TrEMBL record:
Coiled coil: none annotated. GO terms for biological process: farnesyl diphosphate biosynthetic process. This is Farnesyl diphosphate synthase. Pfam families: polyprenyl_synt (PF00348). It comes from the Eukaryota. PROSITE patterns: POLYPRENYL_SYNTHASE_1, POLYPRENYL_SYNTHASE_2.
Length: 342
Protein backbone atom coordinates (compact mmCIF):
# COMPACT_ATOMS: atom_id res chain seq x y z
CA UNK A 1 0.00 0.00 0.00
CA UNK A 2 1.63 3.24 -1.11
CA UNK A 3 1.78 6.08 1.41
CA UNK A 4 0.73 8.33 -1.47
CA UNK A 5 -2.57 6.47 -1.92
CA UNK A 6 -3.24 6.47 1.81
CA UNK A 7 -2.65 10.21 2.07
CA UNK A 8 -4.94 10.80 -0.96
CA UNK A 9 -7.52 8.57 0.65
CA UNK A 10 -7.38 10.59 3.90
CA UNK A 11 -7.69 13.85 1.92
CA UNK A 12 -10.92 12.53 0.41
CA UNK A 13 -12.16 11.82 3.96
CA UNK A 14 -11.61 15.49 4.88
CA UNK A 15 -13.45 16.57 1.77
CA UNK A 16 -16.46 14.25 2.41
CA UNK A 17 -16.58 15.25 6.08
CA UNK A 18 -16.67 18.92 5.12
CA UNK A 19 -19.56 18.28 2.69
CA UNK A 20 -21.52 16.40 5.36
CA UNK A 21 -21.18 19.09 8.02
CA UNK A 22 -22.30 21.68 5.47
CA UNK A 23 -25.15 19.55 4.09
CA UNK A 24 -27.83 22.00 2.86
CA UNK A 25 -30.64 19.67 4.01
CA UNK A 26 -29.96 20.55 7.65
CA UNK A 27 -29.15 23.86 9.35
CA UNK A 28 -26.01 23.05 11.33
CA UNK A 29 -25.06 25.37 14.15
CA UNK A 30 -21.64 25.39 15.79
CA UNK A 31 -22.57 22.78 18.44
CA UNK A 32 -24.03 20.27 15.98
CA UNK A 33 -21.30 20.62 13.35
CA UNK A 34 -18.61 20.25 16.05
CA UNK A 35 -20.37 17.16 17.44
CA UNK A 36 -20.60 15.50 14.02
CA UNK A 37 -16.99 16.34 13.20
CA UNK A 38 -15.72 14.95 16.51
CA UNK A 39 -17.90 11.86 16.17
CA UNK A 40 -16.68 11.20 12.62
CA UNK A 41 -13.01 11.75 13.47
CA UNK A 42 -13.31 9.39 16.44
CA UNK A 43 -15.13 6.57 14.65
CA UNK A 44 -14.53 6.60 10.90
CA UNK A 45 -10.82 6.93 10.00
CA UNK A 46 -9.27 5.16 13.00
CA UNK A 47 -8.99 1.59 11.70
CA UNK A 48 -6.62 -0.05 9.25
CA UNK A 49 -8.80 1.29 6.37
CA UNK A 50 -8.30 -1.99 4.47
CA UNK A 51 -11.90 -2.18 3.27
CA UNK A 52 -11.91 1.33 1.86
CA UNK A 53 -8.45 1.21 0.29
CA UNK A 54 -9.37 -2.12 -1.31
CA UNK A 55 -11.91 -0.39 -3.54
CA UNK A 56 -9.16 1.79 -5.03
CA UNK A 57 -6.71 -1.14 -5.30
CA UNK A 58 -9.32 -3.38 -6.91
CA UNK A 59 -10.46 -0.75 -9.41
CA UNK A 60 -6.84 -0.05 -10.41
CA UNK A 61 -6.19 -3.78 -10.92
CA UNK A 62 -9.36 -4.16 -13.02
CA UNK A 63 -8.40 -1.19 -15.22
CA UNK A 64 -4.80 -2.33 -15.52
CA UNK A 65 -3.52 1.24 -15.71
CA UNK A 66 -3.03 4.36 -13.61
CA UNK A 67 -6.24 6.12 -12.63
CA UNK A 68 -7.18 9.68 -13.52
CA UNK A 69 -7.62 12.04 -10.53
CA UNK A 70 -11.42 12.01 -10.77
CA UNK A 71 -11.42 8.19 -10.83
CA UNK A 72 -9.18 8.09 -7.75
CA UNK A 73 -11.57 10.48 -5.98
CA UNK A 74 -14.66 8.40 -6.83
CA UNK A 75 -13.01 5.10 -5.87
CA UNK A 76 -11.89 6.69 -2.58
CA UNK A 77 -15.41 8.06 -1.95
CA UNK A 78 -16.85 4.55 -2.38
CA UNK A 79 -14.13 3.19 -0.11
CA UNK A 80 -15.11 5.73 2.53
CA UNK A 81 -18.78 4.70 2.22
CA UNK A 82 -17.66 1.22 3.32
CA UNK A 83 -15.64 2.71 6.19
CA UNK A 84 -18.74 4.72 7.20
CA UNK A 85 -20.81 1.53 7.10
CA UNK A 86 -18.18 -0.21 9.25
CA UNK A 87 -18.19 2.69 11.75
CA UNK A 88 -22.00 2.54 11.99
CA UNK A 89 -21.90 -1.20 12.72
CA UNK A 90 -19.08 -0.92 15.25
CA UNK A 91 -20.56 1.98 17.24
CA UNK A 92 -23.79 0.03 17.75
CA UNK A 93 -22.06 -3.36 18.08
CA UNK A 94 -19.92 -2.06 20.96
CA UNK A 95 -23.04 -0.90 22.83
CA UNK A 96 -24.74 -4.29 22.33
CA UNK A 97 -21.61 -6.18 23.43
CA UNK A 98 -20.92 -3.76 26.32
CA UNK A 99 -17.35 -3.53 25.00
CA UNK A 100 -14.75 -1.25 26.55
CA UNK A 101 -12.14 -0.66 23.87
CA UNK A 102 -12.07 -0.46 20.11
CA UNK A 103 -9.01 0.25 17.96
CA UNK A 104 -6.91 0.88 21.06
CA UNK A 105 -9.19 3.57 22.53
CA UNK A 106 -12.40 3.60 24.60
CA UNK A 107 -15.57 2.73 22.66
CA UNK A 108 -17.43 5.85 21.55
CA UNK A 109 -20.38 5.27 23.93
CA UNK A 110 -17.89 5.05 26.84
CA UNK A 111 -16.75 8.63 26.23
CA UNK A 112 -18.09 11.06 28.90
CA UNK A 113 -21.11 13.03 27.61
CA UNK A 114 -21.64 10.57 24.72
CA UNK A 115 -23.29 7.53 26.35
CA UNK A 116 -26.49 6.54 24.57
CA UNK A 117 -26.27 9.49 22.17
CA UNK A 118 -24.01 6.99 20.38
CA UNK A 119 -27.17 5.18 19.20
CA UNK A 120 -28.25 8.25 17.25
CA UNK A 121 -24.68 8.78 16.09
CA UNK A 122 -24.80 5.28 14.60
CA UNK A 123 -27.99 6.22 12.74
CA UNK A 124 -26.29 9.43 11.55
CA UNK A 125 -23.33 7.43 10.22
CA UNK A 126 -25.72 5.15 8.33
CA UNK A 127 -27.49 8.16 6.83
CA UNK A 128 -24.28 9.76 5.62
CA UNK A 129 -23.74 6.95 3.08
CA UNK A 130 -26.67 7.81 0.77
CA UNK A 131 -25.72 11.51 1.05
CA UNK A 132 -22.22 10.72 -0.27
CA UNK A 133 -23.56 8.40 -2.99
CA UNK A 134 -26.15 10.94 -4.13
CA UNK A 135 -23.71 13.84 -4.31
CA UNK A 136 -20.96 12.03 -6.23
CA UNK A 137 -22.62 9.18 -8.15
CA UNK A 138 -26.14 10.33 -9.02
CA UNK A 139 -25.24 10.94 -12.65
CA UNK A 140 -23.48 7.60 -13.11
CA UNK A 141 -25.15 4.72 -14.98
CA UNK A 142 -24.40 2.39 -12.04
CA UNK A 143 -25.88 4.70 -9.34
CA UNK A 144 -29.01 2.60 -8.73
CA UNK A 145 -26.90 -0.58 -8.55
CA UNK A 146 -24.61 1.07 -5.98
CA UNK A 147 -27.48 2.15 -3.74
CA UNK A 148 -29.01 -1.30 -4.10
CA UNK A 149 -25.66 -2.97 -3.27
CA UNK A 150 -25.18 -0.98 -0.05
CA UNK A 151 -28.80 -1.66 1.03
CA UNK A 152 -28.46 -5.37 0.29
CA UNK A 153 -25.17 -5.75 2.15
CA UNK A 154 -26.41 -3.75 5.13
CA UNK A 155 -29.46 -6.02 5.37
CA UNK A 156 -27.26 -9.13 5.20
CA UNK A 157 -24.91 -7.75 7.88
CA UNK A 158 -27.71 -6.72 10.24
CA UNK A 159 -29.29 -10.16 9.79
CA UNK A 160 -25.94 -11.80 10.59
CA UNK A 161 -25.65 -9.65 13.71
CA UNK A 162 -29.16 -10.75 14.68
CA UNK A 163 -28.27 -14.48 14.43
CA UNK A 164 -25.13 -13.75 16.45
CA UNK A 165 -27.10 -11.95 19.18
CA UNK A 166 -29.95 -14.44 19.47
CA UNK A 167 -27.54 -17.38 19.49
CA UNK A 168 -25.78 -15.82 22.49
CA UNK A 169 -28.90 -14.80 24.42
CA UNK A 170 -28.11 -14.16 28.08
CA UNK A 171 -30.03 -16.53 30.33
CA UNK A 172 -30.20 -19.12 27.58
CA UNK A 173 -26.58 -20.18 27.50
CA UNK A 174 -26.60 -23.47 25.69
CA UNK A 175 -23.33 -24.55 24.08
CA UNK A 176 -25.08 -27.42 22.32
CA UNK A 177 -26.51 -24.82 19.89
CA UNK A 178 -22.99 -24.04 18.67
CA UNK A 179 -21.66 -25.81 15.58
CA UNK A 180 -19.43 -25.05 12.61
CA UNK A 181 -22.49 -24.54 10.41
CA UNK A 182 -24.07 -21.90 12.69
CA UNK A 183 -20.65 -20.24 13.08
CA UNK A 184 -20.26 -20.15 9.30
CA UNK A 185 -23.74 -18.69 8.84
CA UNK A 186 -23.11 -15.90 11.34
CA UNK A 187 -19.72 -15.12 9.80
CA UNK A 188 -20.92 -15.16 6.21
CA UNK A 189 -23.66 -12.64 6.85
CA UNK A 190 -22.15 -10.58 9.66
CA UNK A 191 -18.66 -10.09 8.22
CA UNK A 192 -17.93 -11.57 4.80
CA UNK A 193 -20.38 -9.60 2.66
CA UNK A 194 -19.49 -6.11 3.83
CA UNK A 195 -15.78 -6.68 4.48
CA UNK A 196 -14.87 -8.71 1.41
CA UNK A 197 -17.56 -8.74 -1.24
CA UNK A 198 -18.63 -5.08 -0.94
CA UNK A 199 -15.25 -3.45 -1.80
CA UNK A 200 -14.78 -5.63 -4.89
CA UNK A 201 -18.43 -5.22 -5.94
CA UNK A 202 -18.00 -1.41 -5.75
CA UNK A 203 -14.91 -1.63 -7.98
CA UNK A 204 -16.71 -3.93 -10.45
CA UNK A 205 -19.67 -1.50 -10.72
CA UNK A 206 -17.30 1.45 -11.31
CA UNK A 207 -15.62 -0.62 -14.01
CA UNK A 208 -19.00 -1.04 -15.74
CA UNK A 209 -19.56 -4.69 -14.84
CA UNK A 210 -22.87 -6.37 -14.04
CA UNK A 211 -22.67 -8.02 -10.60
CA UNK A 212 -24.92 -10.88 -11.74
CA UNK A 213 -22.03 -12.00 -13.96
CA UNK A 214 -19.71 -12.34 -10.97
CA UNK A 215 -21.35 -14.89 -8.68
CA UNK A 216 -18.12 -16.94 -8.59
CA UNK A 217 -16.20 -13.87 -7.35
CA UNK A 218 -18.76 -13.37 -4.61
CA UNK A 219 -18.41 -17.02 -3.52
CA UNK A 220 -14.59 -16.77 -3.30
CA UNK A 221 -14.82 -13.51 -1.32
CA UNK A 222 -17.38 -14.93 1.11
CA UNK A 223 -15.05 -17.90 1.64
CA UNK A 224 -12.20 -15.44 2.26
CA UNK A 225 -14.35 -13.52 4.71
CA UNK A 226 -15.03 -16.72 6.61
CA UNK A 227 -11.31 -17.40 6.87
CA UNK A 228 -10.77 -13.78 8.02
CA UNK A 229 -13.33 -14.16 10.81
CA UNK A 230 -11.80 -17.44 11.98
CA UNK A 231 -8.50 -15.50 12.24
CA UNK A 232 -10.35 -12.83 14.21
CA UNK A 233 -11.79 -15.41 16.60
CA UNK A 234 -8.31 -16.87 17.05
CA UNK A 235 -6.71 -13.45 17.68
CA UNK A 236 -9.46 -12.51 20.15
CA UNK A 237 -8.07 -15.22 22.43
CA UNK A 238 -4.43 -15.65 21.39
CA UNK A 239 -3.57 -12.21 19.96
CA UNK A 240 -1.72 -9.60 22.04
CA UNK A 241 -4.14 -6.77 23.03
CA UNK A 242 -1.47 -4.13 22.30
CA UNK A 243 -1.19 -5.52 18.75
CA UNK A 244 -4.86 -6.16 17.94
CA UNK A 245 -6.00 -2.90 19.58
CA UNK A 246 -8.67 -4.41 21.82
CA UNK A 247 -9.06 -6.75 24.75
CA UNK A 248 -10.79 -9.88 23.49
CA UNK A 249 -14.06 -10.73 25.24
CA UNK A 250 -15.45 -13.61 23.14
CA UNK A 251 -15.19 -16.08 26.04
CA UNK A 252 -16.89 -13.74 28.53
CA UNK A 253 -19.56 -12.80 25.94
CA UNK A 254 -20.45 -16.44 25.20
CA UNK A 255 -19.66 -15.81 21.52
CA UNK A 256 -20.15 -18.52 18.93
CA UNK A 257 -16.43 -18.38 18.21
CA UNK A 258 -14.58 -20.81 15.93
CA UNK A 259 -12.41 -21.73 18.94
CA UNK A 260 -15.30 -22.85 21.15
CA UNK A 261 -16.89 -24.73 18.25
CA UNK A 262 -13.59 -26.56 17.59
CA UNK A 263 -13.11 -27.19 21.33
CA UNK A 264 -16.57 -28.80 21.50
CA UNK A 265 -15.65 -31.02 18.54
CA UNK A 266 -12.39 -32.17 20.11
CA UNK A 267 -13.28 -32.30 23.82
CA UNK A 268 -14.11 -35.41 25.84
CA UNK A 269 -17.15 -35.39 28.16
CA UNK A 270 -15.20 -34.05 31.13
CA UNK A 271 -13.71 -31.21 29.07
CA UNK A 272 -17.15 -30.37 27.64
CA UNK A 273 -18.43 -30.11 31.22
CA UNK A 274 -15.57 -27.72 32.06
CA UNK A 275 -16.48 -25.60 29.02
CA UNK A 276 -20.18 -25.54 29.91
CA UNK A 277 -19.38 -24.46 33.48
CA UNK A 278 -16.91 -21.71 32.56
CA UNK A 279 -17.72 -20.38 29.09
CA UNK A 280 -19.64 -17.10 29.04
CA UNK A 281 -18.70 -16.08 32.61
CA UNK A 282 -17.15 -12.67 33.38
CA UNK A 283 -15.04 -14.14 36.20
CA UNK A 284 -11.34 -14.01 35.11
CA UNK A 285 -10.68 -17.43 36.68
CA UNK A 286 -13.40 -18.97 34.45
CA UNK A 287 -11.90 -17.29 31.39
CA UNK A 288 -8.46 -18.65 32.38
CA UNK A 289 -9.86 -22.19 32.63
CA UNK A 290 -11.32 -21.94 29.12
CA UNK A 291 -8.02 -20.65 27.72
CA UNK A 292 -6.17 -23.42 29.50
CA UNK A 293 -8.48 -25.98 27.89
CA UNK A 294 -7.88 -24.38 24.47
CA UNK A 295 -4.16 -24.92 25.05
CA UNK A 296 -4.69 -28.51 26.23
CA UNK A 297 -6.66 -29.21 23.05
CA UNK A 298 -3.80 -27.65 21.04
CA UNK A 299 -6.13 -25.23 19.26
CA UNK A 300 -3.20 -23.11 18.09
CA UNK A 301 -1.98 -26.02 15.97
CA UNK A 302 -5.57 -26.79 14.82
CA UNK A 303 -5.89 -23.16 13.68
CA UNK A 304 -2.54 -23.22 11.84
CA UNK A 305 -3.67 -26.33 9.99
CA UNK A 306 -7.02 -24.69 9.12
CA UNK A 307 -5.19 -21.56 7.90
CA UNK A 308 -2.89 -23.54 5.59
CA UNK A 309 -5.76 -25.58 4.09
CA UNK A 310 -7.99 -22.51 3.64
CA UNK A 311 -5.22 -20.65 1.84
CA UNK A 312 -4.58 -23.55 -0.54
CA UNK A 313 -8.30 -23.96 -1.29
CA UNK A 314 -8.71 -20.21 -1.94
CA UNK A 315 -5.70 -20.08 -4.28
CA UNK A 316 -7.14 -23.00 -6.27
CA UNK A 317 -10.56 -21.26 -6.56
CA UNK A 318 -8.96 -17.96 -7.58
CA UNK A 319 -6.77 -19.53 -10.25
CA UNK A 320 -9.84 -21.18 -11.77
CA UNK A 321 -11.22 -17.71 -12.68
CA UNK A 322 -10.96 -16.90 -16.41
CA UNK A 323 -9.95 -13.25 -15.94
CA UNK A 324 -6.35 -12.48 -14.92
CA UNK A 325 -7.43 -9.02 -13.70
CA UNK A 326 -10.07 -10.53 -11.38
CA UNK A 327 -7.49 -13.10 -10.22
CA UNK A 328 -5.15 -10.21 -9.36
CA UNK A 329 -7.89 -8.49 -7.33
CA UNK A 330 -8.65 -11.65 -5.36
CA UNK A 331 -4.98 -12.51 -4.78
CA UNK A 332 -4.33 -8.97 -3.58
CA UNK A 333 -7.12 -9.39 -0.99
CA UNK A 334 -5.83 -12.76 0.16
CA UNK A 335 -2.26 -11.45 0.42
CA UNK A 336 -3.40 -8.75 2.85
CA UNK A 337 -4.95 -11.16 5.33
CA UNK A 338 -2.90 -14.37 5.09
CA UNK A 339 -1.10 -15.00 8.41
CA UNK A 340 -2.08 -11.55 9.74
CA UNK A 341 -1.35 -10.75 13.40
CA UNK A 342 -4.02 -8.06 13.86
Amino acid sequence: MSCDLKSKFLQVYDSLKSELIHDPSFEFDEDSSQWVERMLDYNVPGGKLNRGLSVVDSYKLLKGEELADDEVFLACALGWCIEWLQAYFLVLDDIMDESHTRRGQPCWFRIPKVGMIAVNDGIMLRNHIPRILKKHFRGKPYYVDLVDLFNEVEFQTASGQMIDLITTLVGEKDLSKYSLSIHRRIVQYKTAYYSFYLPVACALLMYGENLDDHVQVKEVLVEMGTYFQVQDDYLDCFGAPEVIGKIGTDIEDFKCSWLVVKALELANEEQKKLLTENYGKKDPSCVAKVKELYNTLNLQFVFEDYEKKSYEKLITSIEAHPSKAVQAVLKSFLGKIYKRQK
